[in-house]
Structure formats: structure tokens, C-alpha cells
Design a protein that fits this description.
Layout (H helix, E strand, L loop, with lengths): L4 H69 L4 H11 L3 E8 L4 E3 L5 H12 L3 H6 L2 E6 L2 E9 L5 E8 L1 H13 L7 E5 L5 E4 L7 E7 L8 E6 L5 H70 L6 H32 L8 E3 L1 H11 L1 H6 L3 E6 L6 E3 L1 H17 L6 E9 L2 E8 L21 H4 L8 H11 L3 E7 L3 E9 L2 H5 L1
Parallel strand pairs: 11-13
Antiparallel strand pairs: 1-2, 1-5, 3-4, 4-5, 6-7, 6-9, 8-9, 10-12, 13-14, 14-16, 15-16
The structure holds adenosine-5'-diphosphate.
Length: about 500
């Protein structure tokens, strides 16, 4: 179940996440489409509105211009009257006045060039205008001409051709009419050759989205509405998609991290449950073995079957050794449970190291001798007394010796050493046994942990010995280290701070 959990969880998350992402994308696309439509519609409205406003303003300006022109024409002195009118008509660059025969009435003193311009303009005026009257806008090359039939002083019709001043139109009409326009878009006015005459912003990278012509007042010109780069619904949709994707990604990462963490916790828990079950089985087995030995030897002695004294002595020793092993085992389990419950107390007193080490080794002398172990003891002379709980440290050392015996193979050699290194007392137990693979060396100090079953198969143990050793060392402000190579042996060292020196003095 636990191994299938990541796959299940992954499916349970990825499927809804994919659906969510797809739905989100579709919704955003729809939103983008309708926003795009709305945006274009609004832009069209803006263009129409601007065109309408320009049309109105221009018409208004033209109306004033023409009525003033008409009144100037009623003056007897045509030349100076029109000169005066022209000086006020800023929107007009040139003005020509011709009669129906094509005679140039104004400018009164015309240069040849002016005459030809006037003739050219005249050529574009349809005959009907003379009869119908009124006005007409003409685009002649780059020039925009307002042609209108006026009455001269004698009542005869004359044609006035006003050449518009584009720069003045930009300045006085376009800028004034469109300058105050507030819109997220850019409003521009393009001339007949699609050159911008006026623009409310930089057109560089902007996209044209709507236009509206100005046919009546400025032929060939039109209002164009642009969207600045990044302001389009598509660009904001891209930004939204990026934000949503990032948020979704973050969410997925958080969920995945959660799953991985939960999975690891669950695996640890299930491993712990397995280790605990193993522990109970191992402890029971460990208790049973010495008990059956004690019982067997006790019964044999009780029946009085052993007649010679030496054998009897041997049997007594076996019973003592096995009961010692039993109490060590029970001590280990009890201490472990006290440590787990946080009830363990240590009785710290200055202790002589050598007697403690020798007594501990002594407790193992019989089994070691029986199994043919060679024990080398190297205790430095003049070791200071060290503040410690002698029982706890003795028990830790006993656990190391017990392991050294248990995990030795053919090479039955054990070396115990005690020396001072720097500010620390180092108590080491080295064997030439099966060793510990490097990747397991950190884990062997965890409670219930035992190296792979094949290695420890047939060897008694509960997996709490080294956990206890580590706890005792830490309680003393020291530590335990291991130096081991598989098939070559292990050296466990207990490091205890030497604080007794000052106390000695
Ligand atoms: P156990 O009761 O299993 O001996 P310990 O906590 O004392 O529990 O040791 C944990 C594990 O560390 C052991 O199961 C064994 O695999 C490994 N180990 C401990 N001491 C030695 C050693 N001297 N040589 C090889 N392996 C060892």
C-alpha cells in the first residue's frame, strides 16, 4: 500500500491539476476573444468619436473663416481687405480668388507660379459648383484645398480657393480637439499618404486597431486608433497565463513536497513498526536462550547426576554467566525504556577508569575464553579519574564487548584500550569481525536498527545496544564513534570529557 501511495497520490493530483489547467486555459481564451472584440469595438467608437469631433470643429472654424471672407469681399478695396482677412486666417496658407472666366482676382499682383497654381485648382472645380454654390474639399497632391463659390462686390460669383495650412491645422485643431482625450489607446490623425500628422503617443511598435475617415473636412485623411505594445488583451492574457501557470506550478510543487514528506514519514513509521515487532521477537528469544541453559544445568545438578567437583564447578559458572547475561539484557531493555520515557538518571561521580574497564572485561572472560578469543588490554598508565556514571559507562562498554564477541568471525581477537587524547578519555573496543558497510555506520546507532538480516542472522540481538551507548555518551557530554571496514573488523570508541583533572588537584 505504502509503495503504491506516491503513484496514487500523483494520479490524484495530476489529473485534477491537468483538468484545472485545461479549463483555466479555455476560460482565458474565451475571455481573451471577448475582450479583444470589446477592445476593438471601443477603439472603433473612439475613432468615430474623434472623427466626429474633428469634423465639427473644422466645420465651425471654416464657417467663421468663410463668413469673414464674404464680408471682406464686400469692401471696395479688395486687395487690402483680403490681405487683412488673410492675416487673421491662420488655418489658411494661400488664398486664390478667380472669376468664372478664369481671371485671377486675388492675389492682385500674382507671380507666374501663383497663376499656375490657381489654374490647376480651377481645373479641378466641377462646373456644377458655380451653379449650385457651396463648398468642396479637394486633395491636390500634398495640398488640401477648400474651394467655395462666393459673391464678389458686384454680385458676380467668384471662386475662392483656400489652401489649408497643415501645420496650423495640427496645432490649432487636432492638438486642441484631441489633446485632452484620455484613453488606454493612442489616437492619431493620418494624412492622405498615411503619414501621421498628429499622434497622442509614440506609434513605434503600436498596432493600428481602428480607423475612421474625415471625408468632408479633410479628404484622404483619417483618424487612426493604435494600441500600445503590451496593452492588448492578448498580451494581458499572456501575462495572466504566465501568472496562473506559475501559481499552479508552485501549488503542484508544494503538494508534491507534501506527498514526498508524508510518504517518507509513513515509510519511517512502518519501518519503525516492523523494527519494534522484530525487537519484541529478538528480546524474547534472547531471554529464552540463557533461561533454558540455566534451567538445564540447574536440573542436572538437582538430580545429583554430576559426581565430580570440577564439572559441578563448571556448571555453576555456566549458570552464573548466563544469569549475568540475562541481567545485562534486562538492564539494557529497562534502561532503554527509561531513556525513551525520559526518566533515566545518571549518578555522576569521579571514577577510576582502569578498575572499571578490567571489571567489565572480567565479566566476559569466561565466554571469551570458551570461544577462544584472544583479548589484548592496553590501559595507559596514570589515567585520571573521570566524572561519570560508572554503571552506565560500564554497561556501554559491556555492550561494545558483547557486540565484538557476537560479530566476530574466524579471527577471534579483541583489543580493548583506554587512553587520554587531548581533553578526552578514549575507551575503544576493536574486533577483527564481520565489519559494517560504510552506508550503515550512521544507522546502527538508531534504536532497533540492525544491519541486514543476512549479516546478523543467527546472532542474538535486540538492536537497542548501540542506541543506549550513544545516549549514555551524549548524557556525559561525550560521543561514540565507529571505524569499520566490512570483513576487516570494527573499532568502537567511547569519548568522555576528562573533567576529573581539576577535581584531582
Ligand atoms: P544488536 O542487539 O543487534 O547487537 P546493537 O544496537 O548493539 O544491536 O547493534 C546494532 C547493529 O550494529 C547490530 O545488529 C550489528 O548489525 C551492528 N554491529 C554492532 N557492533 C558491531 C560489530 N562489532 N561488528 C559488526 N557489526 C556490529
Amino acid at each position: 500500500m505504502i509503495t503504491r501511495l506516491p503513484t496514487l497520490a500523483l494520479t490524484a493530483i495530476l489529473v485534477p491539476a491537468t483538468i484545472l489547467a485545461a479549463l483555466g486555459y479555455v476560460t482565458l481564451r474565451q475571455w481573451e476573444r471577448s475582450a479583444e472584440l470589446l477592445f476593438r469595438e471601443q477603439a472603433r467608437d473612439v475613432a468615430m468619436m474623434a472623427a466626429g469631433k474633428l469634423d465639427m470643429v473644422m466645420r465651425e472654424a471654416d464657417k467663421g473663416l468663410l463668413s469673414r471672407l464674404q464680408s471682406a469681399l464686400t469692401r471696395p478695396d479688395l486687395g487690402p481687405a483680403l490681405d487683412a482677412w488673410r492675416a487673421r486666417a491662420s488655418l489658411v496658407r494661400d488664398v486664390y480668388l478667380v472669376d468664372r472666366t478664369g481671371r485671377l482676382l486675388y492675389p492682385t499682383v500674382a507671380k507666374g507660379e501663383e497663376r499656375s497654381v490657381a489654374t490647376r485648382i480651377l481645373a479641378h472645380i466641377p462646373e456644377t459648383l458655380w451653379d449650385s454654390g457651396g463648398q468642396r474639399e479637394l486633395a491636390l497632391g500634398d495640398q488640401i484645398v477648400l474651394a467655395c463659390v462666393v459673391r464678389s462686390r458686384d454680385g458676380a460669383p467668384a471662386l475662392a480657393a483656400l489652401v489649408r495650412d497643415v501645420e496650423a491645422i495640427r496645432r490649432e485643431i487636432l492638438e486642441r480637439a484631441l489633446g485632452g482625450l484620455e484613453a488606454p489607446t493612442i489616437v492619431a490623425v493620418m494624412d492622405h499618404a498615411d503619414r501621421p500628422v498628429y499622434s497622442g503617443g509614440r506609434l513605434g511598435q503600436a498596432d493600428r486597431i481602428a480607423t475612421a475617415p474625415l471625408p468632408d473636412v479633410l479628404p484622404g485623411w483619417r483618424v487612426a486608433v493604435y494600441q500600445p505594445p503590451g496593452a492588448s488583451p492578448r498580451a494581458s492574457m499572456r501575462r495572466q497565463v504566465a501568472v496562473y501557470t506559475a501559481a499552479l506550478g508552485l501549488l503542484l510543487v508544494v503538494i508534491l513536497v507534501g506527498i514526498v514528506a508524508t510518504y517518507r514519514v509513513m515509510r519511517r513509521e512502518s519501518e519503525m513498526a516492523r523494527l519494534k515487532a522484530d525487537f519484541v521477537a529478538n528480546v524474547s528469544h534472547d531471554l529464552k536462550t540463557p533461561l533454558s541453559v540455566i534451567r538445564m544445568f540447574g536440573e542436572t545438578l538437582e538430580m545429583g547426576r554430576v559426581t565430580d567437583d570440577a564439572t559441578r564447578q563448571e556448571y555453576y559458572r555456566v549458570i552464573t554467566r548466563e544469569s549475568e547475561r540475562l541481567s545485562r539484557l534486562i538492564d539494557n531493555v529497562l534502561d532503554f525504556s527509561r531513556i525513551e520515557g525520559g526518566r533515566q538518571r545518571y549518578d555522576m561521580v569521579p571514577t577510576a577508569v582502569e578498575p572499571l574497564v578490567r571489571e567489565t572485561i572480567e565479566a566476559f572472560s569466561y565466554p571469551m575464553a570458551q570461544q577462544g578469543f584472544k583479548v589484548e588490554v592496553d590501559i595507559a598508565a596514570d589515567l585520571p579519574e573521570v566524572v561519570m556514571d560508572a554503571d552506565a559507562v560500564g554497561q556501554a562498554l559491556a555492550n561494545l564487548l558483547d557486540n565484538a564477541i557476537k560479530y566476530s568471525g574466524e579471527q577471534r581477537q579483541i583489543a580493548v584500550a583506554a587512553r587520554v587524547e587531548g581533553e578526552q578519555l578514549a575507551l575503544s573496543v576493536a574486533d577483527r569481525g564481520i565489519g559494517i558497510p560504510p552506508e550503515e555506520q550512521a544507522r546502527i546507532f538508531e534504536k532497533f536498527y540492525r544491519v541486514g538480516r543476512s549479516e546478523t542472522q543467527g546472532r542474538r540481538g535486540s538492536g537497542v545496544g548501540l542506541a543506549l551507548v550513544r545516549h549514555v555518551m551524549e548524557a556525559h557530554g561525550g560521543r561514540v564513534t565507529v571505524d569499520s571496514r566490512p570483513a576487516d573488523g570494527s573499532r568502537f570508541t567511547l569519548w568522555l570529557p576528562v573533567r576529573a583533572r581539576g577535581a584531582d588537584a
